[in-house]
Design goal:
By secondary structure, the protein is of the alpha/beta class. It folds into 2 domains: 193 residues, glycerate kinase, domain 1 (3-Layer(aba) Sandwich), CATH 3.40.1480; 225 residues, Rossmann fold (3-Layer(aba) Sandwich). The chain is built from 16 helices and 17 strands.
Amino acid sequence: MHITNFKKLIKTDLREKALLIAEAGYDAIDIKKSVKRRISVKNGILEVKMHTEAGTVIVDLKDYKRVFVVGVGKGSALASMTLAKTLGKYLTKGIALDVSQPKLNPPAGGQKLKIFKGDHPLPSKQNIKATQEIIEIAGKLNEHDLLISFICGGGSALACSKECELTDSVLVIKELTKKGANISELNTVRKHLSDFKGGGLAKIAYPATVVSLIVSDVCGNDLSTVSSGPTVFDKTSKKDAENILKKYSLKPLSVSLVETPKDQKYFKKVQNILFVCNQDAALVMIEKSREFGFNSRIQSLALEGEAKCIFSPMINKIKNKEAIIAAGETTITFVKNGIGIMENGKAKIGKGGRNQEAVLGVVNNLRRSAPNSASFCVISFASDAYDHTESAGAIGDILTVQEANKLNLDIDEYLKTHSTFEFFEKTGDALYAQKTCFNVADLMLVIKD
């Protein structure tokens, strides 16, 4: 089981079905299982099954003198370890930068693989050290070498190669996130603060052959946006980054913006592959819900918008015996148009994440409607099991409303201060899960009897 408090959350038959559907979603993006299912080496031939029905990439490892593995982002360490074991004798050396540091051992290629644990969402000097080591390895490659990279969500913050980039990134992430910038805008700016992102790694590794396995955590699966696209040609410009900073009232001259590589020669021997994305989880969730007799459909795989309102269109349209699945990345606006809970002149912001906020938005609306007629529940969870807190997300239904009333919890207050983690801890509806799955952003489910 990926959901670690599964049994505690089962309070009704409908909840159990909803949780089993969510569990199926987690299983579909399990890191070890995904790598083992999709990557194999036989007689020196590497086969990589691409996302869904996109086909298979075949590489003859014997064509290269050396084979290197580089991982960047959430889950890249475990993925790199699993790949190292698959490559076996063909692996020369590997390095991964992740938010976690799985234990290495020789059978998993540990003697050839180095794992760094970096800080996220704000980078640190440890991130710089790790990124510089990756750059050192990639910079020594030649035309006879093969680089296989795992590029996963979170790499935009993890990969940081210089002190000036560290300073500027911290400023940009804090300010743009606070003002509601979306992930595409954030990453456009971060690309132009770095010599690693926005195709920078491809340039550094040139003239080696690069096979980049990309795990998408962004809406629409724009590969140039995932981890700010270190191996993908960047279509944005320094001017685009400047305009985004101006849009959110930040002075472009306050940070050191650079242009990303525009010479196509750096990308001629690069193959970027969509390896895993939220569709992999959503399709399995659909299949699982149909096993329970529900008419199932996908609302969107690129869902964006204010977290507390994101479920409303689905709930308004859902019919009896129906399950609606969605995936994407919502936004929490902490202070909008000057409105918010103020304390000592500053916005009072509690602990929580966008998945918990999405569910609490439903709970808040549910208590205002006819609660006795409510026969549905919602789940929203982070695929990497980290919803900006120890919790992966939450489950909500009429039982949540009843528990909140019993405990005399002011739901409006918890929403206004974004204290969603505290709320669901009190009602017992916070969802916890193992951090062993790829980061493909958030997954959502509405189910009705």
